[in-house]
Task: inverse folding
Protein backbone atom coordinates (compact mmCIF):
# COMPACT_ATOMS: atom_id res chain seq x y z
CA UNK A 1 0.00 0.00 0.00
CA UNK A 2 1.93 2.99 -1.32
CA UNK A 3 1.03 6.15 0.56
CA UNK A 4 3.39 8.20 -1.59
CA UNK A 5 3.15 7.50 -5.30
CA UNK A 6 5.44 8.52 -8.11
CA UNK A 7 3.72 7.08 -11.13
CA UNK A 8 6.40 7.96 -13.69
CA UNK A 9 9.43 5.67 -13.33
CA UNK A 10 11.42 7.84 -15.72
CA UNK A 11 11.33 11.17 -17.52
CA UNK A 12 13.48 12.62 -20.30
CA UNK A 13 13.80 16.38 -20.77
CA UNK A 14 15.85 18.49 -23.13
CA UNK A 15 18.58 20.58 -21.52
CA UNK A 16 17.35 24.11 -20.89
CA UNK A 17 13.69 23.10 -20.73
CA UNK A 18 11.52 22.69 -17.65
CA UNK A 19 11.45 19.34 -15.83
CA UNK A 20 8.27 18.55 -13.92
CA UNK A 21 8.24 15.61 -11.53
CA UNK A 22 4.94 14.59 -10.01
CA UNK A 23 3.96 12.94 -6.76
CA UNK A 24 0.61 11.92 -5.30
CA UNK A 25 -0.18 10.95 -1.74
CA UNK A 26 -3.09 9.25 -0.06
CA UNK A 27 -2.74 10.20 3.60
CA UNK A 28 -4.38 13.51 4.49
CA UNK A 29 -2.42 13.51 7.75
CA UNK A 30 0.86 14.29 5.99
CA UNK A 31 2.04 17.74 7.04
CA UNK A 32 5.49 18.02 5.50
CA UNK A 33 6.74 17.04 2.07
CA UNK A 34 10.25 16.64 0.74
CA UNK A 35 12.19 15.91 -2.39
CA UNK A 36 15.45 14.00 -2.28
CA UNK A 37 17.86 13.58 -5.17
CA UNK A 38 20.02 10.53 -5.71
CA UNK A 39 23.01 9.97 -7.97
CA UNK A 40 24.25 6.43 -8.80
CA UNK A 41 26.35 4.81 -6.09
CA UNK A 42 25.51 7.60 -3.64
CA UNK A 43 22.90 8.03 -0.93
CA UNK A 44 19.94 10.37 -1.43
CA UNK A 45 20.48 14.03 -0.55
CA UNK A 46 17.86 16.50 0.56
CA UNK A 47 16.79 18.93 -2.16
CA UNK A 48 13.78 20.98 -1.15
CA UNK A 49 10.74 20.76 1.11
CA UNK A 50 7.36 22.33 1.73
CA UNK A 51 5.06 22.54 4.71
CA UNK A 52 1.37 21.75 4.30
CA UNK A 53 0.50 25.32 5.25
CA UNK A 54 2.10 26.56 2.04
CA UNK A 55 1.39 25.89 -1.62
CA UNK A 56 4.74 26.88 -3.10
CA UNK A 57 8.37 26.93 -2.10
CA UNK A 58 11.16 28.11 -4.33
CA UNK A 59 14.92 27.63 -4.10
CA UNK A 60 16.89 28.76 -7.10
CA UNK A 61 16.03 26.63 -10.10
CA UNK A 62 13.85 24.33 -7.97
CA UNK A 63 10.23 25.00 -7.06
CA UNK A 64 7.87 22.67 -5.27
CA UNK A 65 4.11 23.12 -5.60
CA UNK A 66 1.58 21.58 -3.24
CA UNK A 67 -2.10 21.07 -4.04
CA UNK A 68 -3.66 19.74 -0.85
CA UNK A 69 -7.14 19.29 -2.25
CA UNK A 70 -5.76 17.03 -4.98
CA UNK A 71 -3.18 15.46 -2.66
CA UNK A 72 -0.57 16.23 -5.27
CA UNK A 73 2.80 17.87 -5.31
CA UNK A 74 5.25 18.57 -8.07
CA UNK A 75 8.87 19.57 -8.43
CA UNK A 76 9.77 22.00 -11.19
CA UNK A 77 13.35 22.40 -12.35
CA UNK A 78 14.00 25.27 -14.71
CA UNK A 79 16.15 25.46 -16.65
CA UNK A 80 17.15 21.79 -16.59
CA UNK A 81 20.88 21.09 -16.59
CA UNK A 82 22.91 17.91 -17.29
CA UNK A 83 23.79 17.62 -13.60
CA UNK A 84 20.09 17.30 -12.79
CA UNK A 85 20.10 13.77 -14.25
CA UNK A 86 19.38 11.64 -11.19
CA UNK A 87 16.63 9.76 -9.38
CA UNK A 88 14.23 12.02 -7.50
CA UNK A 89 12.35 10.72 -4.48
CA UNK A 90 9.23 12.36 -3.14
CA UNK A 91 8.68 11.88 0.60
CA UNK A 92 6.11 12.85 3.22
CA UNK A 93 5.89 13.00 6.99
CA UNK A 94 2.76 12.08 8.92
CA UNK A 95 1.58 14.88 11.21
CA UNK A 96 1.50 12.72 14.28
CA UNK A 97 5.17 11.90 13.83
CA UNK A 98 7.34 14.65 15.22
CA UNK A 99 10.31 12.30 15.14
CA UNK A 100 11.17 12.76 11.50
CA UNK A 101 9.97 9.40 10.21
CA UNK A 102 9.23 10.00 6.53
CA UNK A 103 7.69 7.83 3.83
CA UNK A 104 9.30 7.74 0.41
CA UNK A 105 7.90 7.08 -3.04
CA UNK A 106 9.55 4.73 -5.53
CA UNK A 107 11.41 7.51 -7.30
CA UNK A 108 11.50 8.97 -10.80
CA UNK A 109 14.63 8.78 -12.92
CA UNK A 110 15.22 12.07 -14.72
CA UNK A 111 17.36 12.12 -17.88
CA UNK A 112 18.47 15.50 -19.16
CA UNK A 113 19.17 15.22 -22.87
CA UNK A 114 21.87 17.37 -24.52
CA UNK B 1 32.75 15.47 9.19
CA UNK B 2 32.99 12.39 6.96
CA UNK B 3 29.24 11.98 6.80
CA UNK B 4 27.40 8.74 7.43
CA UNK B 5 29.73 5.80 6.93
CA UNK B 6 28.51 2.39 5.83
CA UNK B 7 30.39 -0.85 5.42
CA UNK B 8 30.80 -2.88 3.42
CA UNK B 9 29.93 -1.02 0.23
CA UNK B 10 29.27 -4.27 -1.58
CA UNK B 11 28.43 -7.70 -0.23
CA UNK B 12 27.91 -10.88 -2.19
CA UNK B 13 26.87 -13.93 -0.24
CA UNK B 14 25.12 -17.23 -0.66
CA UNK B 15 21.62 -18.01 0.42
CA UNK B 16 21.47 -19.10 4.04
CA UNK B 17 24.50 -17.12 5.15
CA UNK B 18 24.42 -14.43 7.83
CA UNK B 19 24.95 -10.88 6.63
CA UNK B 20 25.86 -7.93 8.85
CA UNK B 21 25.70 -4.37 7.59
CA UNK B 22 27.31 -1.60 9.57
CA UNK B 23 26.67 2.10 9.99
CA UNK B 24 28.42 4.97 11.71
CA UNK B 25 26.14 8.00 11.93
CA UNK B 26 27.30 11.60 11.84
CA UNK B 27 28.78 12.55 15.20
CA UNK B 28 26.22 14.30 17.39
CA UNK B 29 23.19 13.00 15.52
CA UNK B 30 20.62 11.33 17.75
CA UNK B 31 18.38 9.58 15.22
CA UNK B 32 19.40 6.72 12.94
CA UNK B 33 17.37 5.15 10.14
CA UNK B 34 17.83 1.96 8.10
CA UNK B 35 16.27 1.88 4.61
CA UNK B 36 16.14 -0.67 1.81
CA UNK B 37 15.92 0.33 -1.84
CA UNK B 38 14.53 -1.99 -4.51
CA UNK B 39 13.11 -1.38 -7.96
CA UNK B 40 9.73 -2.74 -6.95
CA UNK B 41 9.24 -0.91 -3.66
CA UNK B 42 11.53 2.09 -3.85
CA UNK B 43 12.96 3.36 -0.55
CA UNK B 44 11.44 1.55 2.42
CA UNK B 45 12.09 2.46 6.03
CA UNK B 46 13.00 -0.70 7.92
CA UNK B 47 13.67 0.62 11.43
CA UNK B 48 14.77 3.77 13.18
CA UNK B 49 16.39 4.61 16.49
CA UNK B 50 16.27 7.72 18.62
CA UNK B 51 18.95 8.11 21.29
CA UNK B 52 19.98 4.48 20.62
CA UNK B 53 16.48 3.16 21.35
CA UNK B 54 14.46 1.45 18.59
CA UNK B 55 11.34 3.55 18.04
CA UNK B 56 9.62 1.92 15.09
CA UNK B 57 10.56 -1.43 13.56
CA UNK B 58 7.30 -1.95 11.69
CA UNK B 59 9.16 -1.91 8.40
CA UNK B 60 11.38 -4.87 9.25
CA UNK B 61 10.17 -7.52 6.81
CA UNK B 62 10.69 -10.67 8.81
CA UNK B 63 12.24 -12.12 11.93
CA UNK B 64 15.30 -12.86 9.83
CA UNK B 65 16.07 -9.14 10.05
CA UNK B 66 17.38 -7.55 13.24
CA UNK B 67 19.02 -4.23 14.06
CA UNK B 68 20.97 -2.96 17.02
CA UNK B 69 22.43 0.31 18.15
CA UNK B 70 24.74 -0.42 21.08
CA UNK B 71 25.96 3.18 21.26
CA UNK B 72 25.51 6.56 19.62
CA UNK B 73 28.19 5.96 17.02
CA UNK B 74 27.41 2.50 15.70
CA UNK B 75 24.52 0.44 14.39
CA UNK B 76 24.19 -2.93 12.68
CA UNK B 77 21.55 -4.50 10.49
CA UNK B 78 21.72 -8.29 10.43
CA UNK B 79 20.00 -10.76 8.12
CA UNK B 80 20.09 -14.38 9.22
CA UNK B 81 19.58 -16.47 7.16
CA UNK B 82 19.80 -14.41 4.00
CA UNK B 83 17.65 -15.13 0.94
CA UNK B 84 17.93 -14.03 -2.72
CA UNK B 85 14.93 -11.70 -2.30
CA UNK B 86 16.93 -9.73 0.26
CA UNK B 87 19.14 -8.47 -2.57
CA UNK B 88 18.87 -4.67 -2.53
CA UNK B 89 20.75 -1.53 -1.59
CA UNK B 90 20.59 -0.83 2.13
CA UNK B 91 20.97 2.76 3.29
CA UNK B 92 21.65 4.15 6.70
CA UNK B 93 20.70 7.75 7.49
CA UNK B 94 21.08 9.95 10.55
CA UNK B 95 19.65 13.24 11.76
CA UNK B 96 19.88 15.59 14.70
CA UNK B 97 16.41 15.98 16.11
CA UNK B 98 15.54 19.41 17.44
CA UNK B 99 11.94 19.76 18.54
CA UNK B 100 11.81 23.41 17.52
CA UNK B 101 12.71 22.70 13.92
CA UNK B 102 9.97 21.89 11.43
CA UNK B 103 12.05 19.10 9.97
CA UNK B 104 15.40 17.63 10.83
CA UNK B 105 17.15 16.68 7.62
CA UNK B 106 18.21 13.08 7.22
CA UNK B 107 21.71 12.57 5.88
CA UNK B 108 22.22 9.33 4.01
CA UNK B 109 25.25 7.11 3.74
CA UNK B 110 26.43 5.74 0.37
CA UNK B 111 24.63 2.46 0.88
CA UNK B 112 25.56 -1.22 0.89
CA UNK B 113 24.69 -3.17 -2.23
CA UNK B 114 23.77 -6.69 -1.10
CA UNK B 115 23.55 -9.59 -3.51
CA UNK B 116 22.35 -12.94 -2.20
CA UNK B 117 22.96 -15.79 -4.63
Result:
Amino acid sequence: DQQVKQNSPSLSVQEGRISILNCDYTNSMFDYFLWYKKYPAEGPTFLISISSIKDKNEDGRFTVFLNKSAKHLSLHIVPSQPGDSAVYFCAARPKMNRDDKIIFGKGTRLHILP
Amino acid sequence: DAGVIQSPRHEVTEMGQEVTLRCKPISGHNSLFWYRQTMMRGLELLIYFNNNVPIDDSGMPEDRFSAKMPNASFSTLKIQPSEPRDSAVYFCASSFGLAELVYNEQFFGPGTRLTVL
About this structure: Chain B has a mean pLDDT of 92. The CA atoms of residues 4 and 109 of chain B lie 5 Å apart. Chain B has no helices and eleven strands. The longest strand of chain B covers residues 42-50.
